[in-house]
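Handout, section B. The chain below has 98 residues.
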Amino acid sequence: MIIFGTKGYLYQLAILTLVCGHCGNPSAHTLRKRVTKFTLFFVPLFPVSTKYATQCTFCGAEQKVTAEQAEQLQAQGAAGGAQGGQQPYGQPQQPYRS
């Protein structure tokens, strides 16, 4: 008897301040990576699919992004952290639309 299946893994890559495309509020968004791996006898062997998404912490809306967009957002978050974190109050923030 062979036991096989899939298992999902969720990674939080960054927390970014963006204007939500759903509710329009500037709020924190989590950038997440979901990896589904093929398992054989409950041992994960190789990834079957990888998906990226952002989720608004204000309204909970989730938006799918491509791998390239996720890389850009992650680089933007790292650059913001190197400059001292959040943007000053009153400064316009980058809207995110797919």
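Note. The chain has one helix and four strands. Compare this with the example in section A.
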